[in-house]
Write a structure and sequence with these properties.
This protein is an alpha+beta fold. The protein is 35% helix and 18% strand. The chain has a ten-stranded mixed beta sheet. It has a four-stranded antiparallel beta sheet with strand order 10-15-12-13, with no helix packed on it.
Length: 479
């Protein structure tokens, strides 16, 4: 088994003309490379990026190829959280209490790392004041084994404190369809932006992220140990009933009778993440995480055009598993609709929501390109000459990637209009691929009428996507 490989490299030469966005060549190359995304995900190397690299380099080497990497402290050095939440690289309990306790009214989710319930750590609600008091006591006693190890995790901090700018999303991760969509929904107040706070010894069991999304995680203070496995390796971590191992430290993994495939595990990566560093975890990479010190981290899950196909394939697989689970009831009236209800309950999304997700992402990009779907024409905003004006008008929209990265005050990272347009075209081409596949899926066709209420029909949407992807984007590549 290959393991424990961390390849540290410095970023390439940083030229004045570096920009966020993707060139014509990258757009073509990345579109072709996507079909090999999962096949190329078996690298047992994680690169350390000590200095800024261009957005295009991150896009082509890590997002498209679905490869992990670890960024140095340059991404987080200016964050407010890195100044106000810690002192001497340790949690500042007094400051956290003063800033966020809201006179003892702030409630946070707490997991007990010494218990297991349904392949997870059971959670309970606790006020932030209570948790900070517990944590300070647990720490002062030297993290004793006879006390519960409690972990504040999955705290929707930005929802709770929208006016407190704790951090700036690094530019490499700003193309975030998932959180854009969840923010636009009126039927939920959820998102996938979290703060984690935990003492030394707290940990997260083996898992892959929701919807097989990407994730990034930044250490405000403390150190984490990550153990990661490329897609496909998880089959060697399943027991004889097909259940994923809960804890990689369990001696049961060496029991051939319970984990008969574990001895064939081929790829395992261990990474130590220091204060201020940011790790990028690609789609479908299973991982287990340990806090080696008292640690605070900021984490996002997100999906974009580079991994949306992986997410869609995962949702389809989840539906197949639901249908298999209740196959004895398939003669019941409304069976397909019931399967969709179970799919949403088990995975967090169903086909109707996924179509709305794709529809929303497409409409946003049509808007940013200045594209009129009804007339199939491009407003002047879609030209390179005028796109900058549209971009500036939309600079508050999430996902336009026009924000200057937090590690510079110069504008050299801003995209040229052509590069930004290329990115939107790439996104729309990936949405087209998803919608086309949905239209050939029998389960989607069966519930089509319910899926498209209040939205464009998929066949109409495909016409607009075809127009943009074929006439606008790729004809320009002949320039």
């Amino acid at each position: 088994m290959d393991c424990d490989i961390i390849h540290k490299t410095r970023g390439g030469d940083w030229h004045e003309n570096e920009r966020i966005g993707i060139s014509h060549a990258a757009l073509i190359t990345c579109t072709k490379a996507q079909s090999h995304q999962q096949e190329d995900s078996c690298s047992c190397e994680i690169k350390y990026i000590a200095e800024p690299v261009s957005y295009e380099e991150f896009f082509t080497k890590y997002l498209i190829l679905n490869q992990p990497c670890l960024f140095g402290q340059f991404l987080t050095s200016s964050w407010r959280s890195c100044k106000e939440w810690i002192v001497n690289n340790e949690p500042n309990f007094e400051s956290l209490e003063r800033l966020f306790s809201n006179e003892g009214k702030t409630v946070v989710p707490i997991a007990n790392c010494k218990q297991e319930e349904y392949s997870s750590h059971p959670k309970e609600a606790m006020t932030l004041s209570q948790y900070l008091q517990y944590w300070e006591t647990y720490r002062s006693k030297g993290h004793p084994p006879d006390m519960d190890c409690l972990y504040l995790k999955d705290w929707h901090f930005t929802k709770a404190f929208p006016n407190y700018d704790a951090y700036q999303t690094p530019v490499y991760f700003q193309s975030d369809w998932m959180n854009d969509f969840w923010e636009s929904r009126s039927d939920t107040d959820d998102d996938y932006r979290f703060v984690y706070m935990g003492p030394k010894g707290s940990w997260t069991p083996l898992h892959a992220d929701v919807f097989r999304s990407y994730s990034w995680s930044a250490n405000v203070c403390g150190r984490k140990k990550w153990i990661l496995f490329p897609p496909g390796q998880e089959v060697y971590l399943q027991d004889n009933l097909g259940h994923l191992a809960f804890d990689l430290c369990s001696p049961e993994l060496n029991d051939d009778r319970k984990y008969p495939k574990y001895k064939n595990l081929q790829h395992r990566i261990e990474v130590i993440q220091e204060k201020g560093e940011v790790i990028f975890v690609p789609s479908g990479w299973h991982h287990q995480v340990f806090n080696l010190e008292d640690t605070i981290s900021i984490n996002h899950n997100w999906v974009n055009g580079c991994n949306i196909w992986i997410s869609w394939q995962y949702i389809k697989q989840c539906l197949l598993e639901v249908k298999h689970e209740i196959r004895d009831c398939q003669d019941m009236e409304g069976w397909e609709e019931h399967c969709q209800l179970m799919l949403k309950a088990s995975s967090g999304i169903n086909y109707s929501d996924f179509y709305k997700f794709m529809h929303t992402a497409a409409q946003q990009r049509f808007k940013w390109l200045g594209y009129n779907q009804i007339e199939n024409v491009h407003y002047p905003a879609a030209s390179e000459e005028n796109a900058g004006q549209t971009i500036s008008q939309n600079d508050k929209d999430k996902g336009n990637m026009c924000t200057t990265p937090d590690f510079t005050t110069e504008n050299k990272f801003l995209p040229t209009c052509r590069e930004l347009i290329n990115h939107y075209i790439f996104d729309l081409c990936q949405i087209k691929k998803i919608i086309s596949d949905m239209m050939s899926d029998e389960d989607f066709i069966h519930i089509l009428q319910n899926c498209v209420k209040g939205l464009q029909r998929p066949d109409i949407l495909i016409e607009s996507l075809n127009d943009v992807c074929e006439k606008y984007a790729f004809s320009s590549m002949q320039e």
